[in-house]
Write a structure and sequence with these properties.
255 residues; alpha+beta; 11-stranded antiparallel sheet; 7 helices
Length: 255
Amino acid sequence: MRSRPETAITARITAGQSRFRGNGRRAVRSSVLLAGLPVVLALSACGGPTGEGTGEAAEEAALLHESQLLSFEGAEIMPEGSEAGVYSELVTVQYSEQVRASTEIDKPDCLDAANRWADAEAVQGAPASLTSYEWDRGSLTHLLVRLDEEGAASAVSSRPPADCATYTATYEDGTSSGYEVRDLSGLPALGDESRGFAVDVDTDGESNHMYSVMYRNGDLVGTTSIMGPGALEDYEEMLVEFTRASVERQQDKLG
């Protein structure tokens, strides 16, 4: 796969309105709990602008945002569903905290089962960029966070607790979803090191899946995630090749 030629991307990003209807709210809540950091559904639902921010972290976040792909093999960036800034100040992250605070987990340690690394103080204050893409086969997002190399290696090596392979979340309105976290061992190595994982969610008999690759590129941590109803084979090529193209663009833009 090859990405199409791209133009510059601006760093002033706002979170837009959801394009999902019907059971969109349920999908938003589920996506927030899929991996701690929500995918496009949660980001699109929260609405409202993020602050531009000032200082070194904001400038670094702007550079990270400029290194993001604008399009790749039919996936087009959604500026209204993307943002950049200090990680803990992203609208997406703050929205996910609100949803999780009102949700009960039968295994409390599993609240951030696939995203425990993000709770580290160094990550919370780090420059970050999160981009969302319009794709007709699923919801695609890419997160990029700059740490030091030790912190980045530690993030990628993190794993969920052993008893978090399955857990149940009960939402504020009394409905619930079952979650299953599993490794994706068959994916190729990406960046300097990487790992793949999947989170399956079942809500009232409706199944959805999130497939993710988390990788390190020097002192950068990146996560490519695709959420949709299909099996891994429906998304694997896009997941892998989008990540490869992202690493290549980072090398071109950031050195």
